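Researcher: Re-running this chain for the archive, since the previous output was lost when a drive failed. Same request as before.
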Amino acid sequence: MSDTVVTAKIRLLQHMAAHDSDAPWLVLIHQIPPKPAYFRVKVWRRLQALGAVAIKNSVYVLPRSDQAREDIEWVLREIVRDGGEASLCEASFVDGLRDDQIEALFNAARDADYGQIAEEARRVGALPHGPEIPEDQRAQGEADVARLNRRLADVIAIDFFGAPGREAAEGLLAGLETRMRSRGEGVASRQRVEDLRGRTWVTRKGIHVDRIASAWLIRRVVDPDARFKFVPAKGYRPERGELRFDMFEAEFTHEGDCCTFEVLVSRLGLDDRALVPIAEIVHDIDLKDEKFGRPETAGIDHLVTGLAMAHKEDEARLVRGSALFADLYAYFRRKSRLAGRLEEIR
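Model: Regenerated structure tokens:
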């Protein structure tokens, strides 16, 4: 489809949107003079910072909101002020691109951002750490973590549809922060299951694989009546009787290169062979480092991503995800029992 046809359709949509207050998208169409070249780059960077995605050359989309409209109007004014042309419209796409395809463009863009953060976090995590390293190196590591946290916050602010890559980036940074706080002291000591019952378990909103699996494990081995509370990623102050997991400064979260599920298994002293492959699968999906490379990982990753896409509410995700991990546990439990019998026969 040519840019001319796209522009014509959007102009039609602009006219339609004047009578449709439910139009879900803001569409910016601009024409920028070829010189100076830096101006085009400047506009592109401004749109990137807002989280806009291009559906065609010089045609950018954002989910409609009052804040997005205000932000993009500033870009429009800047384009016009410096000699370009621009139009802004509210639109519903009635042909060609579907809403879910546009959402996929946003998720792909944010996943690329999260991927860069995760890669940088792994680089920082591979550096020496602990009380024995020089103070300047420790300070640099802390500065790197703070910088990555700021970058992560910026990306989350424009992650309009919950891109799946956020889980790995947040998990890696949580692990780095734990290492900085521990000063090389290693994984915390084991805790008695009895001391953890009757609590409310708090974690970040938008649960994905590590938090879903951890919540399932908590209800399976700690407290079948455990209550869960979903809160913003940072700034939450726990109330009496609450325990946090897989979030900033949580009682149970990433430690070293272990995801929260692995930490729970270790801290609770769980000696269950069926949990080992589940922990390996959750680790590889969460941290995306292919440490274990189990053949089931890709399929479970797709299932968890699918249920997250189908269910926006955390309670619904927890119900569906818990059923998934219960079935997965039953499979590995039966498999481990068969393996044990074979060992006895030999």
